[in-house]
Design goal:
78 residues; alpha+beta; SH3 type barrels; six-stranded antiparallel sheet; 2 helices; 6 strands
Length: 78
């Protein structure tokens, strides 16, 4: 099942399929390690839904919901 990272529920795990952003946002996401093939675990979500906290490549990362919406994911069962 495919969906964007901002649609993930707490505790869900997935693999990055593509980053659908342009310019500075795409560069920023790539620099933070959000690249195709990376495994992502949704850890927390703020009370109003923004920002979200994920675990990626062994570290915790906080993203804005608008940035997470640019990341296409494939949900994995783990």
């Amino acid at each position: 099942m495919n969906k964007t990272l901002d649609q993930f529920s707490i505790g869900e795990t997935g693999i990055v399929k593509a980053v659908i952003a342009e310019g500075k946002i795409k560069r920023r996401l790539f620099d933070m390690g959000i690249t195709p093939g990376a495994e992502v675990f949704m850890r927390k979500r703020a009370p109003l839904g923004d920002p979200i906290e994920i675990t990626l490549r062994g570290y915790e990362l906080t993203l804005r919901k608008s940035e997470a919406a640019c990341v296409n994911m494939e949900v994995t069962d783990k």
